[in-house]
Amino acid sequence: MHRNASMNILDTIAENKIQHAIERGELDFPEMYGKPLEITEDFSIPVEVRMMLRKLSQTKSSIREQSPLLRFWKARAYRDSRQRSIKQGGHKT
């Protein structure tokens, strides 16, 4: 298994556990073959910020709408999606 120099010990342990589970067949779920994964998290956002945003989404909407942190990450997600769209041949509107 290739080890990236930036991997820390926890990454290495996690990778080893995943590899062993794959080898033992613990991650084989035939009912899931061919079905797309529904990933709703934006993993480019740090985990601490995602946790804050999740908590924020459970608060009253008036408080949520006023959050500078939420506005920042929504603007970033919009900007990133626009850039991906343009790179894939989409048009600027």
Question: Could you explain how this protein is built, in words?
Answer:
By secondary structure, this protein is mainly α. The chain has one domain (9-87). The protein has helices at 9-24, 47-57, 61-65, 68-87. The longest helix has 20 residues, at 68-87.
Brief sketch in words of this structure:
It is built from four helices and no strands.
Shape: extended
**Number of self-contained structural domains:** 1
Low-confidence stretches: none
What is the share of helical residues? 55-70%
Category from helices, strands and their pairing: mainly alpha
What is the arithmetic mean of pLDDT?
Answer: 77
Total helical segments = 4
- Strand portion, in percent? under 5%
Distance between the amino and carboxyl termini = 45 Å
Q: What is the gyration radius calculated from CA atoms?
A: 19 Å
Order of helices and strands: HHHH
Secondary-structure blueprint of this entry?
Elements: H1 9-24, H2 47-57, H3 61-65, H4 68-87
Give keywords:
mainly alpha, 93 residues
